[in-house]
Design a protein that fits this description.
six-stranded mixed β-sheet; binds nicotinamide-adenine-dinucleotide; Leucine dehydrogenase
Length: 363
């Protein structure tokens, strides 16, 4: 298994080797100002699928680090969910508000086209449906478009459903019952996914404490679901049964871990553990059950995959429901193997890739 947190060689090829990527494409176009990186981590199971993010990175090195980490996560997410997809991701370097043009996006689309389907892109941070339409003008290798364009539409409700399933499985492990009735749950970030997740939790009778970066959204959701709204930093100090990170990554870190009073962590945010090799074991030591992020937030990818193979939202939801069983399996395995759930999940994903790689070795 590749442990990536402590990079021993920070050169470009050193990083690529350490993360074990198959291919990294640096895209540059003088005319449009395009600077992008496409990371193709692993295509043993199928084409590398993952969104394109546009972000004003502090440095090119940060952009490379982001695309390498994100595309690796996509490999594991697809593999553990039983999908025939590899892991990929792309970043466009620049300010999404001021530097995005039709020409730049279409040029980027050409780079995606040149990969002949080895990489399939989708929407991510800093990109809109309109932007994806521009990319689609140059390449058919775009997924997750709106239903009106023949796509699978907003993945957030499916992601929320999967997160809910994973949370219930983790609750069963921690409390002996998967019922969330009366459980106190702290939801950090009530945007697209967090908002849909709240519906499931409230329907089951959970008691919610929530926060959001946007004050108006926070108050709106608190009023709608009769929840307690707290400040951004206060969320870590709540006396709750479950902490659900649904905003940004790395919220489980050296500053927050000792403040958490929950028995379960289950949320939709990507890369929740700042350092999986440090904070994964640290949660086990504290008796906190962690539902691996890339496993329980896979509903959105499952939804996009159903678009790629011609399935329906109904089939995506039924596949997403299995996240409950997958989470139970991973949590039990982690316990048996004396490791932490994130590591057990990565191991399981890698085992599927290794096994199916052998199947494919015959022409
Ligand atoms: P979103 O932008 O709709 O919602 C995120 C919310 O978090 C926003 O309301 C934002 O104001 C809030 N937020 C930002 N910083 C915060 C902070 N420090 N404290 C509290 N709130 C904060 O995004 P989303 O689509 O709901 O995705 C949420 C997370 O789930 C992201 O990490 C995303 O990468 C991940 N994810 C989303 C999907 C999906 O289908 N949308 C799939 C897989 C993973």
């Amino acid at each position: 298994m590749v442990e990536i947190q402590e990079l021993t060689d920070t050169s470009v090829f050193g990083q690529i080797a350490e993360h074990q990527h198959e291919q990294v494409v640096f895209c540059h176009d003088h005319e449009t100002g395009l600077k992008a990186i496409i990371g193709i981590h692993n295509t043993v199971l199928g084409p590398a699928l993952g969104g394109t993010r546009m972000w004003e990175y502090a440095s090119d090195a940060d952009a490379l680090n982001d695309v390498l980490r994100l595309s690796r996560g996509m490999t594991y997410k697809a593999a553990i969910s039983g999908l025939n997809l590899g892991g990929g991701k792309a970043v466009i370097i620049g300010d999404a508000k001021t530097q995005k043009t039709e020409a730049l996006l279409r040029k980027f689309g050409r780079f995606v086209k040149n990969l002949n389907g080895k990489y399939i892109t989708a929407e991510d941070v800093g990109m809109t449906t309109k932007d994806m339409q521009y990319i689609r003008m140059e390449t058919k290798h775009v997924a997750g478009l709106p239903e009106s364009m023949g796509g699978s539409g907003d993945p957030s409700p499916v992601t929320a459903f999967g997160t809910y399933m994973g949370m219930k499985a983790a609750a069963k492990k921690a409390f002996g019952s998967d019922s969330l009735a009366g459980k106190r749950i702290a939801v950090q970030g009530v945007g697209h996914v967090g908002g849909y997740l709240l519906e499931h939790l409230i329907k089951e009778g959970a008691k919610i404490v929530l926060t959001d970066y946007y004050e108006d959204r926070k108050l709106e959701m608190a009023a709608k679901y009769n929840a307690v709204a707290v400040g951004l930093d206060e969320i870590y100090d709540q006396e709750v049964d479950i902490y659900s990170p649904c905003a940004l990554g790395a919220t489980i870190n050296n500053d927050t871990i000792d403040r958490l009073k929950c028995r379960v962590i289950a949320g939709c945010a990507n890369n929740q553990l700042q350092d999986e090799n440090v904070h994964g074991p640290a949660l086990v030591e504290r008796g906190i059950i962690y539902a691996p992020d890339f496993l329980i937030n896979a509903g959105g990818l499952i939804n996009v995959y159903s678009e790629v193979i011609g399935g329906s939202r109904k089939s995506a939801l039924s596949q997403t429901e299995k996240i409950y069983d997958f989470t139970t399996e991973v949590l039990n395995k982690a316990e048996q193997e004396g490791t932490h759930p994130q590591k057990a999940a990565i191991r399981q994903a890698e085992q599927r890739i290794a096994a199916l790689g052998k199947v494919k070795s015959t022409y």
